[in-house]
Amino acid sequence: MKFPRIRQLKAEPELRPRAALALSSMAAALSEIRNWRLETKEELRQAVLLLDLLNHQARLLIDQLGDTRTREQLVAHSSVIEQMLEIARHKISQI
Fold first, then answer.
1. DSSP-based three-state secondary structure for 20
2. Which of 15, 32, 38, 48 has the CB geometry, 3.0–4.6 Å to 19, for a possible disulfide?
């Protein structure tokens, strides 16, 4: 199972270090999930759990961002995460 590729999340220079670190770790985790084989129900459940956590983290971060462009990018990435969640949940129901 392959998820759609998303563009790398990039932290804007004016972001606080904590927000920049969060964006960087989210990008790394999404990249990692994309490369998982996700063939068993347990692997899919793990992916759903991590995607849920990442999406929650993105939504919390969106509320804290003052930079409109970065906020819009993160909202777009959150939408992709939600699509990935739908795909994974559908796949779980098929196994």
1. helix
2. 15
